[in-house]
């Protein structure tokens, strides 16, 4: 094979590889560009327990839980609303989540310590307002 043909083959293979990577990246971007309104449903949830007390106080206790967004166990309810005003990362996300950090970690299949470490270690990791973990694309310029 002549030197010129080798050069043409190398250029053609390189162009094909670039095209394949571009199509794959576009397809992956489309898959990852889902809405932020998905809600994780645990496979099995514990049965709620009735608060102890007299019959007169039971109605008041249930009403308080519904208004405060807390479930029966006193944990923040992530399914009912946003936990953050905007996507946040790092120490800012940890501070803003406060007591909801454990619930957000559980929602994303992590322990509180794992989520805290990930947020502090990787600047591209963010928490969406609904409590979902995502990675911010820092390679693509954004029009702000």
Give an overview in words.
With 144 residues, this protein is mainly alpha-helical. It contains five helices and two strands; from the N terminus they run H-H-H-H-H-E-E. Among the domains are: 28 residues; 61 residues, no CATH class. It has a two-stranded antiparallel sheet. Strand 1 and strand 2 form a beta hairpin. Helix 3 packs antiparallel against helix 5 and helix 4 crosses helix 5. It is elongated, with a radius of gyration of 24 Å. About 31% of the residues have low confidence.
Question: Could you give the topology of this structure?
Answer:
Layout: H1 3-32, H2 55-68, H3 90-97, H4 101-107, H5 112-121, E1 125-127, E2 133-135
Antiparallel strand pairs: 1-2
Q: Which features characterize this protein?
A:
144 residues, transmembrane helix, elongated, membrane, transmembrane, 5 helices, mainly alpha
Specify the number of helices: 5
How helical, in percent, are the residues?
40-55%
Largest sheet: 2 strands, antiparallel
pLDDT below 50 for ≥5 consecutive residues: which ranges? 33-77
Strand order of the largest sheet: 1-2
Rg, Cα atoms, Å: 24 Å
- What class do helices, strands and sheet pairing give? mainly alpha
Region (Disordered): 35-91
Transmembrane segments: 7-32
Keywords: Membrane, Transmembrane, Transmembrane helix
Biased composition (Acidic residues): 49-73
């Amino acid at each position: 094979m002549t030197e010129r043909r080798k050069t043409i083959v190398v250029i053609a293979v390189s162009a094909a590889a670039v095209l394949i990577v571009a199509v794959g990246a576009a397809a992956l971007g489309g898959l990852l560009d889902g809405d932020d309104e998905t809600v994780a449903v645990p496979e099995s949830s514990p049965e709620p327990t009735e608060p102890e007390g007299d019959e007169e106080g039971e109605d008041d206790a249930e009403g308080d839980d519904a208004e405060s967004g807390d479930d029966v166990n006193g944990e923040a309810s992530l399914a009912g609303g946003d936990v953050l005003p905007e996507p946040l990362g790092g120490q800012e996300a940890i501070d803003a989540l406060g007591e909801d950090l454990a619930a957000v970690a559980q929602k994303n299949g992590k322990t509180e310590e794992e989520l805290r470490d990930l947020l502090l270690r990787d600047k591209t990791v963010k928490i969406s307002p609904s409590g979902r973990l995502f990675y911010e694309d820092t390679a693509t310029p954004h029009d702000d």
